[in-house]
Amino acid sequence: MTSATVYDLATKDLDPPFAIVDLDAFDANGADLLRRAGGKPIRVVSKSVRCRYLLTRVLARPGFEGLMCYSLAEAVWHVEQGTTDDIVVAYPTADHGALRRLAANDRARAAISIMVDSPEHLDLVDAALGQDHPEIRVCLELDASWRPLPGVHVGTRRSPVFSPRQAADLTRTILSRKGFRLVGMMAYEGQIAGLGDAAGSGVRNSVIGWMQRKSIVEIAKRRAAAVRVVRKLADLEFVNGGGSGSVESTGAEAAVTEVAAGSGLIGPTLFDGYAHFSPRPAAMFALPVVRRPAPKVATLFSGGYIASGPTESSRQPTPYLPEGLSLLGFEGAGEVQTPVSGEAARHLRLGDRVWLRHAKAGELAERFTHYHVVLGDRVDRTVPTYRGESQNFG
């Protein structure tokens, strides 16, 4: 049977729209990430999954250790739910309420490390909790962008701490402040981990590949120097780096003790364009055919699940099964309807399902309250997403 037939059979009693996770594909992607990590532990990036059942499942596998959450409120919630006792919050927080919940919970304070990249982040914590607050674990973020020439910035806009000297200066500031303990360092090289090198034209791919090779060498040298100077001042528990697209290169750095990954578990369309790994599509959603406006066009109900990031076609969902369908350029994926065209549309009838994939890994979970977990030709279980547990972390 084709994948579409298997998914249709497994979900025959469900009314679309709904979302599924192919458990075999999810587990296979986890095994491939472990292979690529070469023995380095993998910290699971929760924003790319946003489903507590799936996060718990992957954390039960040897080689996956701890979560990287995108918000402090999310991290505290996971501690309260007993998901894990090892969490790094990947982005600085300005959430006074979440900081108060952290300070009031001994388990949470022992489990969670918050991100800082300036003395102002420490000031914000003091403002939220008072000068005599309990000790808060902090992680220093080193900017991992590539800056080959003055004024040229390749990568995400994150930390102002770029050089080893700046890292040492901030370390001294943290160590001088009562109520804080520096426990880790992080650097996310988005221009390597989050940018496919086989997603476009040959010229584009060659340029990206060249940039990534240069950037890999540069960040490895600079990160190692920064870790050396910080370790002379503080006893770091971990040095985190990378993402699903750079597991091999980041994991190969001696200075890095763990790598981060999440999207590689799900295999969204933005991760189809990498030359060195090919995750299996593990999450997708089904929409019903509700109109037949032309022989080679079928109109689906709903479907405008546009991914965050730059406004371009790569952020739209992609028709997956049956094969041979594409979105219409004039309409794209709409809030209430999504037309698809192609030879395969001739055979679609009202009520048939079309399976689509989201561009990004975790954002599909914001559209559905539950994932139906498919194992073979059956639904093994139905589990809530964050939204299904009434959790929305912004």
What is the topological layout?
Blueprint: H1 3-10, E1 18-22, H2 23-37, E2 42-45, H3 52-59, E3 64-69, H4 72-81, E4 87-89, H5 96-104, H6 106-111, E5 112-116, H7 119-129, E6 136-141, H8 164-176, E7 180-187, H9 190-193, H10 202-231, E8 238-241, H11 247-251, E9 258-261, H12 263-266, E10 283-294, E11 297-301, E12 318-321, E13 326-327, E14 337-341, E15 353-357, E16 370-375, E17 378-384
Parallel strand pairs: 1-16, 2-3, 2-9, 3-4, 4-5, 5-6, 6-7, 7-8, 8-9
Antiparallel strand pairs: 1-10, 10-11, 10-15, 11-14, 12-15, 13-14, 16-17
Helix pairs in contact: 5-7, 8-10
GO molecular function: D-serine ammonia-lyase activity
Pfam families: Ala_racemase_N (PF01168)
Domain Alanine racemase N-terminal: 21-267
What do you see in this structure?
The chain is an alpha/beta fold and about 400 residues long. It has two domains: about 25-265, TIM Barrel (Alpha-Beta Barrel), CATH 3.20.20.10; about 285-390, D-serine dehydratase-like domain (Lyase, Ornithine Decarboxylase, Chain A, domain 1, Beta Barrel), CATH 2.40.37.20. Helix content is about 30%, strand content about 25%. The radius of gyration is 22 Å and the shape is globular. It comes from Amycolatopsis coloradensis. GO terms for molecular function: D-serine ammonia-lyase activity.
Q: What descriptors fit this protein?
A:
394 residues; alpha/beta; TIM Barrel; Lyase, Ornithine Decarboxylase, Chain A, domain 1; 2 domains; nine-stranded mixed β-sheet; eight-stranded parallel β-barrel; 12 helices; globular
